[in-house]
Write a structure and sequence with these properties.
By secondary structure, this protein is α/β, with parallel strands linked by helices. It is built from 19 helices and 5 strands. A 5-stranded parallel beta sheet has the order 2-1-3-4-5, with helices on both faces.
Length: 394
């Protein structure tokens, strides 16, 4: 069952986006435009959800062509960078992990195919959607394109957005062959937990560190509440049953977001029974939910790292002048990037360089250590930025 909900959601997204391909919509009558097709509205909403917040690089030597591509991407809520030649595209792609790259096949200095091949050799290169922009003479039949996604120039804005959304919705394909390093860490950390669809949960939540933190808090909260639902049913008090129904609604949403598929199904079925006071039918489901939560929370809490800081101060290390200071500054810069990306690698980097970072940042580094140990990367990032501002010479 693992991954089935994610696969179904991706298939539904791809099917919905088909309504936005050329030829699938009737042109409106100039005299009396018809009302918007609900299927088209749903497809456009799906497309916006898939594209908003994603980072894309547009590499094209033609300034007018770049602007033609950038305008709809910005309108879709994407973060856009540009490059005017292949060398600049590679430099940017090495420095920033993009969700997608639009690359002109005929880029100067380094052509589009070589840019694509170079990006593929980066640690996270197989996670990047590459869309080749081809001249009308080559178009979709380009034998050297070597990619599953390409568009003929000049690019149609609507087709560009739909193609990107379809590619991102189906991006689990190449990633499955060579997973992102954080995905590998997540699998190593959680393993295979029956009833927990990690891929679905991390897709909903976004960052891996955020997913781990929310999952652990979910497990702790639900572990503390074990036995309460059967007790509420046994008591039969209307006020307690109403509270239980509200709790089922919240549990249903939390479980769906985190990929706890069995808990979600049981909570979904229990909620209307509790509201209707159908206690005889609710009792066996409540017992099954309590047993599933006990099993699932045990499995989650057995696999997640202890968020409690070690409590010992690392040995003092002087960064000193010269190369050592530059190395520490490089570590701080990389840590900032990883915290911004909500990457599990931030915890590993901090533990590896904890002594040097503590010497650089001072006693307040203990606060940063606690936040990183708890995977609260939003707070850790704010703390780090505040510390860096205070430690810079005036």
């Amino acid at each position: 069952m693992t991954g089935s909900l994610l696969a179904a959601a991706a298939a539904a997204a791809l099917a919905a986006l088909a309504f936005l391909l050329p030829g699938r919509r009737r042109p409106p009558s100039p005299a009396a435009p018809p009302p918007p097709d609900p299927a088209v509205r749903a497809a456009e909403a799906c497309r916006r959800a898939l594209l908003a917040g994603k980072r894309v690089l547009v590499a094209d030597q033609d300034a007018a062509a770049r602007e033609e591509a950038v305008r709809p991407l910005l309108g879709a809520g994407m973060h856009v960078d540009v490059a005017s030649d292949g060398r600049e595209a590679i430099v940017r792609a090495r420095a920033i992990t993009y969700d997608a790259i639009l690359v002109d096949r005929d880029l100067p200095l380094i052509d589009g195919a070589r840019v694509r091949d170079t990006v593929r050799r980066f640690p996270t290169g197989n996670d990047v959607i590459v869309v080749m922009l081809c001249s009308p003479a080559t178009g979709r039949d380009d034998p050297e394109s070597g990619v599953g996604w390409h568009l003929a120039k000049p690019v149609d804005a609507d087709l560009l957005l739909t193609t990107l959304a379809r590619a991102l919705a189906g991006s689990a394909g190449p990633s499955a062959a060579t997973p992102h390093r954080d995905q590998v860490r997540l699998r190593e950390l959680l393993g295979e937990i029956d009833g927990l669809d990690v891929a679905l949960g991390r897709r909903y939540v976004g960052g891996d560190a955020t997913y781990v933190r929310l999952l652990r808090r979910f497990a702790l909260r639900q572990r503390a509440a074990l036995g309460k639902l059967p007790a509420d049913l046994a008591a039969g008090d209307p006020a307690r049953l109403e509270e239980a129904a509200i709790a089922m609604h919240a549990l249903k949403g939390a479980a769906a977001t985190l990929g706890a598929t069995r808990v979600h199904a049981l909570a979904r079925d229990l909620e209307p029974l509790l509201r209707d006071r159908a206690l005889d039918r609710a009792a066996p489901l409540a017992a099954a939910l309590d047993a599933e939560l006990a099993r699932l929370t045990d499995a989650i809490l057995a696999r997640l790292p202890d968020p409690t800081p070690t409590g010992h101060a690392p040995p003092a290390v002087s960064a000193g002048p010269g190369r050592d200071a530059r190395v520490v500054e490089s570590v701080v810069a990389r840590l900032t990037e990883l915290l911004e990306a909500d990457s599990l690698e931030a915890r590993e980097l901090f533990l590896l360089h904890e002594a040097e970072l503590s010497a650089r940042l001072g006693p307040a580094a203990d606060v940063l250590a606690a936040e990183i140990a708890d995977l609260d990367y939003t707070a850790a990032l704010a703390t780090l930025r505040g510390m860096l501002g205070e430690s810079r010479p005036h």
